[in-house]
Amino acid sequence: MPSIPPFSRSEKIADYARRCSPIVWQEEKLKAADGVNLSLCVASTTGHVPSSAVATHLVVLYFQGNASSLPPRLPYLSDVLKALSIRPPSGETFPVKYTIVALSYRGFWTSRGRPSQRGIEKDAEAALRWVMDTYNSAGGRTRLVLWGQSIGAGVATTAVARYSAQTNLGNPSPWIYGLILETPFTSVRDMLSALYPQQWLPYRHLWPFLWNWWDSREALRVLGRAKGKETLRVLILQAGKDELVPKQHGMELEDICRRNGVEVERKEVAGALHTDVIAKGQGRSAIVSFLSDICKT
C-alpha cells in the first residue's frame, strides 16, 4: 500500500530532519536488475564498543512494512543510531561506525515501478548488492545485518535465503551476521487464516490466487541448510498487543531456527501494537543491544 496514507509518496527527508537531528539522512539511487530506479535512505553515526570487539563498521539494511513511505520511519531509525552512539560509562573502547541503509521498494516513495513480490525480490537483491559494493572495503571488519518489519521481515528472510543458496554466508565481506525480524508472520497464506478465521468465509481458501506469497517459514528452513550459518544470529521481536499477527507466528519461526541450527532469540515488547515495537523503549533497546553484540563477537 505505497499510497497509504494519502500523499505519502510526496514526503521528503527534510520534513523529518528536525526529529532526526543530529542524525542526517541522504537519499541514494540505484537500479534493480530489471532497470527499475529505486531509492535508499542512508545515515551513519559513530559509537564505541569494547576494545576487544572485532568489527569496525556495522551496516544495517532495513526493509519497511507494507504501508506509507520511508521518511516517517526515519525518526525511529535515528533513535536507534543515537542510542548506538552513546559512549559506555567506563572501560577501554574504540570507535565503530554504524550505518543504516533503508530501501524504498518499487512503487513506494520516490522509487519507480509498481510493487509486486517478484519485483521487490529484485529490489532487495539490488540493495544487498549496493551495500556490499559500497562498504566492502574494511578488510573483513565490516558486518551486515538485515532488518525487516512486518512484510519487510518476509523480504529480509527471502533475501538472506536466496543469497545463502548462492554463496557461503561467512565468506564474502561484508559478512551477513544478523537478521532482525520485527513483528514477522510465518507466511501470507497463514495470515489469511489469521485475519479470516471463520470457516464459512472463502478468503482463507483463496491463497493460490494471491499476488504475494512471502514465506518466512520456508526461507528460514533454506537458511538452516546454508554454509556459514554458524555466524548468523536472528532476533525476533514481537508486539505484546499485536492486533494483526498472532503470537504463534513468532514462536514458530523461533522453533524453526532452533531445529535448523540457527542461533535465535525471541523477545516480546510489552504493550506494543504491530507498528509500535521500535517506538517503545524496550523494543529499541533490544535492537541496540543486538547490534552492539554483533560488533563484539
Secondary structure blueprint with pairings:
Elements (H helix, E strand, L loop, with lengths): L16 H4 L5 E6 L5 E14 L6 E7 L10 H11 L8 E12 L12 H19 L6 E8 L1 H16 L8 E8 L5 H8 L20 H9 L8 E7 L7 H13 L3 E7 L11 H16 L1
Parallel strand pairs: 3-4, 3-5, 5-6, 6-7, 7-8
Antiparallel strand pairs: 1-2, 2-4
Helix pairs in contact: 2-8, 3-4, 4-6, 6-7
List keywords for this structure.
297 residues; alpha/beta; 8-stranded mixed sheet
Give the overall pLDDT as a whole number: 86
Gross morphology: globular
Give the N-terminus to C-terminus distance in angstroms.
39 Å
Low-confidence stretches: none
Brief characterization of the structure:
This protein is an alpha/beta fold. It has eight helices and eight strands, in the order H-E-E-E-H-E-H-E-H-E-H-H-E-H-E-H.
Structural notes for this entry:
- The chain is α/β, with parallel strands linked by helices and 297 residues long.
- It is 32% helix and 23% strand.
- It has an eight-stranded mixed β-sheet, with helices on both faces.
- β3 (57-63), α2 (74-84) and β4 form a beta-alpha-beta unit.
- The radius of gyration is 18 Å and the shape is globular.
